[in-house]
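**Protein record**
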Amino acid sequence: MTENLRFPAEWESQSAILIAWPHADTDWADRLGQVEETYIALVAAITRFQPVVICVADDDLETYAEMRLRSNRVDMQRVRFVTVAYDDTWLRDSGPITLKNADGSFRLLDFRFTGWGGKFEASRDDQLVGALFDAGLFADAQREVIDFALEGGAIDTDGQGTLLTTWQCLHERHPDTSREQLSARLASWLRQDRVLWLDHGYLEGDDTDAHVDTLVRFASPSSIVYQACDDINDSHYGELQAMGRELEALRTREGAPYTLFPLPWAQPVMDDGRRLAASYANYLILNGAVLMPAYGDRADDAAREVLAAAYPDREIVQVPCRPLIWQNGSLHCITMQLPAGLLASA
């Protein structure tokens, strides 16, 4: 077989979205009822446009999740369950990073998942890709295990060989590896020929060490959406302004500046004195739609308008995500797209 692998952009055609249903043995236990409502809204939104694959821990959880979804009139013809063990539900970081071959086959990159540098127990999550592969979820695919800590939320691609990432995250995971070495490894594994690094940008309450998907996203090979901050009195102002200047200095493959779409800044969301990471950049791209996190903030609708301008050919759908940021992530963090053709028949 001739290998001609490529890392597809998220806006390319998808077969399904992969998620994991929260349960009492995950970190959601204390607020399970609230977060279940977000998952129901998420599945309802996804199934308007395409299938969703839901990981469940056992048969009882599948029965319960199906009951909750049916009672909310979700299109169950587009829902598929797979039983697998998991520590938590952040599948952007524990799920497969998929490369597509020119012949239509796929390569599932199974990087090490360490619970964001050992912050949380992650032994079952680290085995998730292998468990899904063994369950027969994927069609014409090979699995490649890579002994290197990398989370899906730490990288973004334009689908044409340019990777975007943050130095803070990758340096935190691999402190003894130089930027040049990291660039070469990422480019090799992910079949990229350009790696763009951001040195600025963070969110309070984010325990991923500045994942790029909470800050900056490609909207096309020539455009970028990013989380801005225009409140000079906010603690994020200086860092996000510096990140904005970095983005202005970046150039496309053709040498042109990127078209930039700055997202509005939500008011601080506090929980027992702790600020939560309410980012609008953590949206999810579907076939024909963009699902955006809504936080019950006056900036929600303004963020929707920015995304509508960045993705003019897609419907922008708000999903209530305030319960998610209690665990320091949002919509993109709990999902992983499966490219078209990857999902095996049920």
About this structure: DSSP finds ten helices and 19 strands in the chain.
